[in-house]
Each structure stands twice: as structure tokens, then as C-alpha cells.
Amino acid sequence: MDKIERMKELIDIINDLNYYYYTLDQPKVSDKEYDTLYDELVKLEKETGTVFPYSPTQRVGGEILDKFEKHYHIERLWSLDKCQNYGELRSWDNRIKRLIEEYNSSHAEQLPPPTYVVEYKFDGLTINLTYREGELVQGATRGNGTVGEAILPQIKTIKTVPLKIDFKGTMEVQGEGLMPLSALKEYNERADEPLKNARNAAAGALRNLDPRVTKERNLIAYFYNIGYIEGVEFKTHMEMLQFIKDNRLPAFNYAKECKSIDEVIEEIEKIEEERHNLDVLTDGAVIKINDMRTREALGYTMRFPRWAIAYKFEAEETTTKLIEVQWNVGRTGKVTPIAILEPVEIAGATVRRATLNNYDDILRKKVAIGSRVLIRRSNEVIPEIMGVVDADEETMKIEKPTHCPACDTELIQDGVHIFCPNSLTCKPQLVSRIVHFASRDAMNIEGLSEKTAEKLFEELNLKDIADIYEIKYEDLIKLEGFKDKRAKNLLNAIENSKDPSLAAFIYALGIPNVGLKTAQDLAEHFKSLEGIKEAEYEELLTIPDVGPKIAENIVEFFRDERILEGLEKLLSEGVKPHYEETTIEESIFTNKTVVITGTINGYTRKELKEKIEEMGGKVSGSVSRNTDYVIVGENPGSKYEKALELGVEIIDEERLSEIIG
Ligand SMILES: NC(=O)c1ccc[n+]([C@@H]2O[C@H](COP(=O)([O-])OP(=O)(O)OC[C@H]3O[C@@H](n4cnc5c(N)ncnc54)[C@H](O)[C@@H]3O)[C@@H](O)[C@H]2O)c1
Ligand SMILES: [Zn+2]
């Protein structure tokens, strides 16, 4: 296709996507897919030197809704230029420096060398508040930058937005309306129709005609810019942020001033690490020139200021097609759906499957075979399906299984989950129990892989975990792939596993939700298998990290007749768990919560975190009353101030090096 033709096509596609995203708050594609199309258009415009006046690259935002009153901003609102790697960031920086140089060569009054402010880029809906005579008189969306929608009643539902402030002049202050991830999660647990992500949730709430709907979503806001102010002049961005805070408008407690682009990059790295600990959605960092006179000299393009740029993180969401749903039987008999997807890349990894939790989830998210689904991957290895993006596609209903896909036993419903009750002869259940039992942190039986476990189940008619202790050489040698040496090795490994530590044995039993750490805590507390077996619910709750759910799981587990039988059998086969008093060396960090801020010489964040964890401490992302120590390095952030404010004990670099040697 001819380049100009392709440009026209892209303009149509992008304008349509903008309408769905900005006007309807119902994106048709993920941001990643949108950005690819947009970048293609920008590239073609550069190549051809042609820019159509109606091109989306020439404007900010999208159409505004008629159902709201129009609001004309006093000062225009902008979008942000973006970059996706440090190379692009450095070229932005070089451009800035060149422009400053040019300016200085033709003006008597010189601009200072640039300093930068790094902030989080929040992913919500831009809001612009107007204060007059100390009162909040209007709140609006960004709209197309010049005209937005008046949504004052909706904005007033945000509890942290002050209705009155100390400053008495006219002022426009701009920020981001956000739905906290915790609020989204809570909302989605109850909602008939779950919201797909926190950005659309916030945008949809603020642009809902009924402020009661807005209120239900428990939004918050962070402010980061004053677009217009009467009679006040700020010298720097930091000064402006201070003014915002002084007027008790919520500003996020992080904005870092940097002297060089290298420092900026260091900060971005920290942000990238920290951002998953935040309760709001972020899609990048924003880098802004601190000095206001420099900003003025640099000016604006059609769409964005030259003095700021967004560093976008790798997208964590994309869309793809759902090909089929597989039902898997787990160790506990729970039958869960796994979505098989058309392979797609997210953040550098190819994704082929996603979780769907349970059948209720499928119904609520309106997922069907053949639907185009939005998937999200944050820290988890396996991504989650957030919802369907295009309901028009031809699809087929997902059927709820009535019988076990492995053993054909009729399934039973327990709450939202379905289970195969046949724990005795249902192959995947027993096989995964055996594999877990034999795993390294459990009984550590080398050579008992999933394949081998399947073979034992099929050929030797294994009915129970304890049966592995009855396996004989004559049995094994008959099996395909088992020669003398391999058979002997496996038998030895099985024999040698009879003397496990109590913690490993408890872990090996596979009590629901009891991982290695909890198993160790249980062993530590009760010191004997009998003790754990007889443990009362209340006593279990006294163990750190054991909540009501796990306590219940443990009590129920040891009440199950079949499990007790299996346990007896294991013991009669000669398995003897033993408890050894282990003395973990105490350190100053043992059982303490530690926060790190600033750069620590000789350590990356990750290394230091690991070191502290090795010494028994827990590293947390933010300072609170529960923080025991704050480690303060070079150029500490606001966490340092918070620590001082709360009187948390500070460890400086010198003391740290004495502690960790
Ligand atoms: N999926 C879709 O169909 C679709 C359609 C249109 C746009 N989009 C997405 O939206 C992007 C463009 O939207 P945009 O013009 O709103 O730009 P943007 O979201 O990339 O950046 C500009 C906005 O960032 C916000 N922001 C957050 N934190 C900030 C901070 N600390 N300082 C300053 N600003 C901050 C401001 O509200 C500002 O308006 C695209 O790149 C794409 O990812 C997606
Ligand atoms: Zn089954």
C-alpha cells in the first residue's frame, strides 16, 4: 500500500480507537497495540513530510461527551512526549541541552544548566480543578486540552480533594484521578461485571453522570501541576509542588530532584522496582525540567511540552484470542480452568495461557471461546484474563464440566470451586501429590519426577503415597526405561527419605495453603507431629503468618479420616519425622521490618534486600509505624523525612557496613 493511503487508514483506525478510549472509556485494544499504530503514523508523517490537519498526532485526547457541560480551561492542558528506553531519554536530554545553549547564545540573561524532577506517571484520568477565592468552583476532564467536561459533583466524591484552600487567588491545579488497586479488587469481588483495569475504572467513574456511582469506586487523586495561578510565580517545579502540598491538596510523596540524566536513570530504576508495591496503577515515570524560566524558553509542540517527557515502562497488558479452555485437576482435587491463548508477547515473554480462576469468573467476565480478551501480567508468571474487549466476535459458550476430565467422577461444587471427590484413583491428584511429596524441600526423593510418578501410578497400581515405600526392585525393573542402576537409585532414594525433618514432612503432606515457611513455623512451635495433628484452631492463630484460613485448613486436614489413615500407613512404613532445635543466628534485623532509601555504596537495591532477608529481616517499600529501621544512603527520598517524622531508627551507611561487614 502507498504510504499516504496507509496514513489515511491509520488515521481512521486511531480516531476510532480514541473515541472508544477517551469518549466511551471502553478501549478496544490494549495501550501497547494502540501505541504501535500511533508510532507507525508518526513515522510515516516524518517520512512523507505530510501531516493531515485532522491527524490524531496534532491533537490531545478525544471528543468530549455532550451529556456534561463544556468547560473551557484557563490554561491549556497537554499530553506528554514519550520514550521507551534510556537511549531515547538521553537524546531528549541532549536536545534540551542544545536548545538551552542556543537560547543562551542569543540572550543576555542565561538559563542555568538543567536539573530534573522525576515523578511517577499515574495511569488514571487527568483532572483539572479551579479554585477561586479559596473555594473549589470547578473540576473538569482534560478533554481535547482546551475544552473539557465539567464534572465537579463527581470530583467532590474524592475525599482527599479539599473544597477550601488557603490560597485566595484564582488557580487551576491539575492531577490524576485514580482508583486504588485495593479498591478495584474489592469492587470486582462483589461486582456483577468486573472492571477491566484501574484506569478505565477511574475514567468511567469520573465520567459517570451519577456521582453516587463515582463515590462507590472510592477514588483518590494526586496533583502535580499548577497550570494557571494568579499573582504567584514559581521559580521551580519543586516550589510548585510545595505550594500544592501547603494548600493541602494531595500530592504523591515522591518527587525526586536530579542533577544529571544519569541520576534520573537511577531513579527510574528504583521506581520500576517499587511501583508494584504501590496501590495505584503507574505506567511510567515523568521527567520534568525543574527551572520554570527554562520551561518557558523551551515551550511546546502541538501536543506536548518540550520540557517534560514520559518514560514508559513495558506494557503489562495486551489483547489476544482465547482458543480454548482446559480444565485441570490439582493436588487437592480442585478443577480449575486454564485459558489457552493465541501466543502473544507481554513484557518480553511469550504468553500462551492465562488463569481464569473459576466458572463464576468466566461468567462474570463474559469470556467465551473465540473472544478477544484483555490479559494482564504484573509480577505473576501466569497472566490473568481481565475481560473481553470486543464483544462482536463470533464466539462459543464455555461449558462447565460436570465430570472429572481425568477420572470421569461426578464433580462436586464447593463455593465457587468445583472438585473431583475421587482423591484415591484420580490420576492427576495422586500424581501431583506424589511429586510434591518427593520434591526437594519435602521428602527429597531424587528421581521421582512427574513422568516416573505417572508410570508408577499406571503400571504399579499405586493407590496412596505410602505405597511408594512398598515398591520392590522386581516391580521397577519391569518398567520401560528402568535398568538396574536407575531402579536401585530410586529405591535407595525412597529408603533414605524415611528420616525427614518434621518441617519437611509437614510440608510434604501438602496441607492446603501450607508452604515451606508455614511448615517450618509449625514445626518450630509444636516440635512434634502429634502436637501439630492435635493443634487447636486458637493456638494455630498465635503463630505468625497463620491466619484464620490456614488455621482452618490445618484443623480440617487432620480431621479427615482418609488422611489420618494415609498418615498412619506412612508411619508404619517406617517414616520417622524428627524435630531438631535449629538455632538461627540472631542479627539486628531478625524479625524486623526494614526500609531502604537512597543509594548504598557497593550494593544494588536487590543485593541489599537479599542480604537483609538472609539476616532474618523483612524489607518493605514504605515507612510506617511498623517500620523498625530505615537504611539511609546517598540522596535519600521522602522516606527519610517520613522516618524522622515518625521517629524510626535510622541506619546510615557507616553503621550498615559495620552490621553487614
Ligand atoms: N487503548 C486504546 O485504545 C488507547 C486509545 C488512546 C490512547 N491510549 C493510551 O493513552 C496514551 C496517550 O494518552 P495521553 O495523551 O493521555 O497521554 P499519556 O497518558 O501518555 O500522558 C499524559 C498524561 O499523563 C498524566 N500524568 C500522570 N502522571 C503525571 C505526572 N506526574 N506529571 C504529568 N502528567 C502526568 C497526565 O494526566 C497527562 O495528561 C497512549 O500512549 C495510549 O497508551 C490508548
Ligand atoms: Zn478425578
TrEMBL record:
Occurrences of domain BRCT (ranges): 584-661
GO CC term (a single one): cytosol
UniProt entry tagged with the keyword Ligase: yes
Keywords: Coiled coil, DNA damage, DNA repair, DNA replication, Ligase, Magnesium, Manganese, Metal-binding, NAD, Zinc
A GO term, aspect molecular function: DNA binding
EC nos: 6.5.1.2
Pfam families according to UniProt: BRCT, DNA_ligase_aden, HHH_2, HHH_5, OB_DNA_ligase
Domain of life: Bacteria
Residue ranges the record marks as coiled coil: 254-281
GO biological process: DNA repair; DNA replication
Binding site for NAD(+): 31-35, 79-80, 119, 142, 176, 288, 312
Catalytic activity: NAD(+) + (deoxyribonucleotide)n-3'-hydroxyl + 5'-phospho-(deoxyribonucleotide)m = (deoxyribonucleotide)n+m + AMP + beta-nicotinamide D-nucleotide
Catalytic residue list: 121
Binding site for Zn(2+): 404, 407, 420, 426
Cofactor: Mg(2+); Mn(2+)
PROSITE patterns: BRCT
NCBIfam families in the cross-refs: dnlj, PRK07956.1
Entry's family note: Belongs to the NAD-dependent DNA ligase family. LigA subfamily.
Function: DNA ligase that catalyzes the formation of phosphodiester linkages between 5'-phosphoryl and 3'-hydroxyl groups in double-stranded DNA using NAD as a coenzyme and as the energy source for the reaction. It is essential for DNA replication and repair of damaged DNA.
The protein's name in its UniProt record: DNA ligase
Organism listed in the record: Tepidimicrobium xylanilyticum
